[in-house]
From TrEMBL:
Residues 84-268 form the IclR-ED domain. It comes from the Bacteria. InterPro entries: GAF-like_dom_sf, HTH_MetabolicPath_Reg, Tscrpt_reg_IclR_C, Tscrpt_reg_IclR_N, WH-like_DNA-bd_sf, WH_DNA-bd_sf. SMART domains: HTH_ICLR. Residues 21-83 form the HTH iclR-type domain. PROSITE patterns: HTH_ICLR (PS51077), ICLR_ED (PS51078). GO terms for biological process: negative regulation of DNA-templated transcription. This is IclR family transcriptional regulator. Pfam families: HTH_IclR, IclR_C. Keywords: DNA-binding, Transcription, Transcription regulation. One of its GO terms (molecular function) is DNA-binding transcription factor activity.
Length: 275
């Protein structure tokens, strides 16, 4: 499945001379594109998704490769994340101990439900999947994996987070919903999203009824930071028959219990900025 959303695409379209902060923004955008999956992305895809010219993209990619931030895979022709990213991530993980806190909850959810469990973080107006724990049920949904980004309000994690943001922030996104949702807008109309947000506020957990990929369902619950803002989310994904209405309440209760557990743990320490 293709995940065309990159978040700051509008800021990357201009091809004027790049200086200072602009080059940093473009490099960050290209790293996000390449980091969508372990397989990376071909040059043509990066050019298309970034909106930059081919010479500009190639020059930036080559410069990052010389610094070890990216590699060019000769077998596939794709650009992939390089060893320096791994080293920097290892160092950063000591400051943001999210895996140590969230992993036990993911394992409990996967063991109790048989479904795949995920932990996502809010980054601006997106969610990014950070962690995954596979369940025992042999048939799985492969919509979500580490590194995947969705606009807030799309997918179960993004719906769970957006539902508990202040009304003004929700309306800001909804006021230009098509631009915000990008290629997901057709399956996530403004009316559908508003209904999902209202249902999530009432029940405490979100339900994504196959809106991203037919037959692939998900449920999510928000995790809150020390100020009471939704900053992360737990979610479960699987095939439609595993998410019948009579089971949703059970799954929702498990998600909310683990989300509350993580919220309580995070309230005692800083797990990192959300923006």
């Amino acid at each position: 499945m293709k995940y065309p959303y990159c978040g700051r695409r509008g800021a990357e379209v201009s091809n004027s001379p790049i200086q200072g902060a602009q080059v940093v923004s473009r490099i960050a955008g290209l790293l996000r594109l390449v980091g969508r999956s372990p397989e990376g992305m071909p040059l043509a895809g990066i050019v298309r998704e970034s909106g930059l010219t081919r010479p500009t993209v190639h020059r930036l990619l080559s410069s990052m490769a010389s610094e070890g931030l990216l590699d060019h895979d000769p077998a596939t022709g794709n650009w992939v994340l390089g060893p320096e990213i791994l080293l920097m991530g290892s160092v950063a993980s000591a400051r943001f101990p999210l895996e140590d806190i969230a992993r036990p909850s993911l394992r409990r959810l996967a063991e109790a439900t048989g479904e795949s469990a995920f932990f996502s973080i809010r980054r601006g107006n997106e969610t990014v999947c950070l962690l995954r724990e596979e369940g025992s049920f042999p048939v799985r949904s492969f919509v979500l994996h580490e590194g995947v980004r969705f606009p807030l309000g799309v997918a179960s994690a993004g719906t769970a987070i957006m539902a508990f943001l202040p009304e003004g922030e929700q309306e800001e996104m909804l006021s230009h919903w098509s631009a915000h949702a990008g290629t997901f807008a057709d399956g996530h109309t403004e009316e559908t999203v508003r209904n999902n947000l209202e249902r999530t506020r009432l029940t405490g957990y979100s339900v994504n009824p196959g809106l991203i990929l037919e037959g692939s369902w998900g449920m999510g619950a928000a995790v809150f930071d020390r100020s009471g803002r939704p900053a992360w989310a737990l979610s479960l994904t699987g095939i439609e028959p595993r998410f019948k209405p009579e089971r949703q309440e059970e799954l929702g209760g498990l998600l909310m219990a683990e989300a509350h557990r993580i919220t309580q743990q995070l309230s005692g320490g800083d797990a990192g900025p959300q923006r």
